[in-house]
């Protein structure tokens, strides 16, 4: 486990003159923390984050303030930006999501992507009710409060996905109001995937066709798109907007993501030329120029075929983990096509050592690209002893 320095060790003085600040001791503190964090990589099997990357060739960009202020589609009066690379990243994910013309930009992570999708929906339908499943991302109630929307958490079925009959029942009692619905593609509590087409059908049955359907595909989108048997997840399945994480299947040293939306929905919120000469059509305005370079670099290295191989590796590792945990008598469960394996929660020291997220009486093992069969074997050896 990572042992953080004490508060006294890292306190920042008002006047560093004559102190050890900036000294070899400070550098040693940072190197010690880095060594501990890097050492944790060998036991990180419980969170949906990929640690298989190396961006050291991009270190020169840490010497300059890069800012992709405004939207990616228009250059700005601030010249130190990477928007041409951002547009290339967006174009790749737009094609993958089934709409070559989709608008998109690089975000700070899944929460911002979800906020953006719900914001577009709220602007389309100001009186809409916001729906998401009980197993949705934890940010959804907060997003509803930020946007001033009525929020309904919809019950889930035996498959842990949104119960469409429950959605129909909830909206029937709110007849006449539009709906913004977040469909989760890969829940954090088991990898379940909501049915996009079924959601639209349920709302039609409840009497509304004023629907903005947002796909929270932060975790499972690339798996659904690139698995040996692809599954519905994005525009081709009825989504109006999509959120994808960059630090999960691709990998990054910090949270990041991509928000995508149908262009006509973004046209309604765009303010032209006001963000240092660029259009204002994102959430954050000023955005870092470094993240698009990371994502572009990794996508150029992997391409679609490399990502497909990565997804196949994750699914094969999850299948192996399911088999080995069953042999250990821990009753594993795995949703079809998911890289998340649920099993009986082991002792607390095992959970801490292996970074296992636990919910109730189940632990989560998530087979990300850096996780191998050797990790599974060592985990099972620890479970036995």
What are the salient characteristics of this protein?
385 residues; alpha/beta; Aspartate Aminotransferase, domain 2; three-stranded antiparallel sheet; 38% helix; decarboxylase; aromatic-L-amino-acid decarboxylase activity
Describe the structure.
- Its cofactor is pyridoxal 5'-phosphate.
- Belongs to the group II decarboxylase family.
- The strands form 3 sheets. The protein has a 7-stranded mixed sheet with strand order 1-7-6-5-4-2-3, with helices on both faces. The protein has a 3-stranded antiparallel sheet with strand order 10-12-11, with helices on one face.
- The radius of gyration is 22 Å and the shape is globular.
- The two termini are 19 Å apart.
- The longest helix has 38 residues, at 290-327.
- It has 385 residues and is an alpha/beta fold.
- The protein has helices spanning 7-10, 24-40, 83-97, 110-124, 139-147, 164-172, 196-205, 221-226, 263-267, 290-327, 348-353, 373-384, and strands spanning 103-107, 129-133, 150-154, 179-184, 211-216, 241-245, 257-261, 271-275, 278-280, 340-344, 357-359, 362-366.
- The chain has a domain at 61-300: 3-Layer(aba) Sandwich (Aspartate Aminotransferase, domain 2), CATH 3.40.640.
